[in-house]
Design a protein that fits this description.
The chain has 152 residues and is α+β, with helices and mostly antiparallel strands. It has two domains: 76 residues, Beta-grasp domain (Ubiquitin-like (UB roll)), CATH 3.10.20.30; 65 residues, [2Fe-2S]-binding domain (DNA polymerase, domain 1, Orthogonal Bundle), CATH 1.10.150.120. The protein contains five helices and five strands. Strands 2-1-5-3-4 form a five-stranded mixed beta sheet, with helices on both faces. A hairpin with a 2-residue loop joins strand 3 and strand 4. Helix 2 packs across helix 5. The longest helix has 14 residues. The protein is globular and about 45 Å long.
Length: 152
């Protein structure tokens, strides 16, 4: 049965009428109009849908809306301040860390959660944090450089 759920998306209140098991990804994309998180595999295995919930990176395709009610959700769109890019977004541009770009949302959001926990990670820590984010284009070395740049 549908009911109203409320959460904070990028600092704004978002209220939606939906089923409790509706994936957060669908609410963010379809109801909030946020296109940063992508539908990749739908199984939580690729990372394209990653968002930050209460400071931690989560796979929004596998997260039911009921489990994040009243929580703070940050998407790629919520990282920058106004027209300014977040340092990770700028680093990805500077390092040309995207080819097709489909993984970029997940890579940046996962890296953001890492840098919030560990502002100066070693390369092996960056690689470990991103190990479950898939990039089929092979941009991994540029992605690691971008995260390192943002951390410096």
């Amino acid at each position: 049965m549908a009911r109203q759920f409320v959460l904070q998306a990028n600092g704004s209140r978002l209220a939606v009428e939906t089923e409790a098991d509706t994936p957060l990804l669908y609410v963010l994309r379809n109801d909030a109009g946020l296109s940063g998180p992508k539908f990749g595999c739908g199984l939580g295995q690729c990372g394209a849908c990653t968002v930050i919930v209460n400071g931690g990176a989560v796979r929004s395709c596998m997260t039911p809306i009921a489990s994040v009610e009243n929580d703070e959700v940050t998407t790629l769109e919520g990282l920058g301040a106004g027209s300014s890019l977040h340092k990770l977004q700028q680093a990805f541009l500077d390092e040309q860390a995207a080819q097709c770009g489909y993984c970029t949302n997940g890579m940046i959001m996962t890296a953001k959660a890492l840098l919030d926990r560990n502002p100066h990670p070693r390369d092996d820590e960056i690689k470990q944090a991103l190990v479950d984010n898939l990039c089929r284009c092979g941009s991994h070395l540029r992605i690691v450089r971008a995260v390192r740049r943002a951390a410096s």
